[in-house]
Amino acid sequence: MNKKLFSLICAVSCSFIWGTAFVAQDMGMDYIGPYTFAASRLLLGFLALLPFFFIFEYKKVKRDRSSFKVLAIYWFLIGFTLAAGNALQQISLLYTDVANSAVFTVLYVVIVPVLSYFFFSKKIHRSVWPSVLLCLIGGLFLSELNNIRVRFGDTLVIIGAFFWAFHIILISKFLKIFNYPITIATFQCLTASIISFIPAFTFEYISFQVLLMESKELLYAGVLSSGLAFMLQVYGQQNLSPAPVAIIFSMEGVFGSIAAWLILDQFLNEFKIFGIIIILFAVIFSQLAPLYDKRKYGRD
Questions:
Q1: What is the DSSP string of 175-209?
Q2: Structural domain of residue 277, as residue ranges?
């Protein structure tokens, strides 16, 4: 099979799993709280990735001489942003529907260059600013402005999107000094799980029997979305350029909305559909415009 075609299949499959996992997240809180679900999911993701770590990177990491202090700092920051993003996303599903949570999460694609500009003085393409404006307009159509409960849920997802954006930036910086993606993915899940279990044990009741009642949802969100999907993400990025991959991954919002419509009967009216289209257009535009400039003018 052609390498690019294989990577494309992996990227689309990853986006599909991420998107449909929102349904599992929404259905998985009948008997457990959001912190418990997020923590358990991340722990399952760690266990799912652990065999790949031992098969592909354990021996290489063992020979590595990187500073343990630096690694520990990065792992804590990455684990914290992952835990916060997961928790806010999970809690939001108690107040808003899957479509809103899935689509607003995708905003991290546009937020990443903005944060890079303000916090790390990185030059960004001018297309980002109209994309941000379009995302705000799309958000107005997608959110139910007369429903305080929904607005609160949407706000949580948007705040979570900032944590996802910081998480992506930290991962890219970490990879420059510690280029072991499977190792990073494996132990970021462990770190995030430990952090997530703190509020879970503090505010929620946890028992193995109760967790078993949500086993299907936890396995899907943990093993597939947090475990397998990351492997697909790595293979998807191997032979495809970053901008097209980001666009493919942003389709998780579409997959999540469709899955919620089909499985949970969460109907999308014309305003919500229009809002989803605007936000996805903004995400795609923010990724394709810089590519067009490079090919036409040979500049960013």
A1: HHH---HHHHHHHHHHHHHHHHHHHHHHHS---HH
A2: 3-297
| Coil vs helix vs strand at 228 | helix
pTM of the model: 0.88
* Sign of the four-CA dihedral 92, 93, 97, 98: positive
Q: CA 82 to CA 78: how far, in whole Å?
A: 6
User: What's the angle, vertex CA 154, arms to CA 149 and CA 156, rounded to 5?
Assistant: 100
Task: Check whether 138 has a pLDDT greater than 90.
Answer: no
pLDDT 10s digits, 234-264:
777 767 766 667 778 878 888 888 899 889 8
Region 80-108: mean pLDDT is 92
HSE-CB at 8 with a 13 A cutoff on CA atoms is 6
Q: Which structure tokens are listed for 63? A: 């020979």
Round to whole Å and give the CA distance between 105 and 125: 22
How many of the other CB atoms lie within 10 Å of CB of 210? Answer: 15
**Distance from the Cα of residue 163 to its chain's centroid:** 10
d(CA 71, CA 74): 5
> What's at 234, amino acid-wise?
V
How sure is the predictor about 119, in pLDDT bands with cuts at 50, 70 and 90? Answer: confident
Mean pLDDT computed over 65-91: 93
Q: ∠ at Cα 275 (271, 279), nearest 5°?
A: 175
**How many domains, the chain?**
1
- Enter the tokens of residue 294: 């490079």
For residue 25, the model assigns a pLDDT of 94
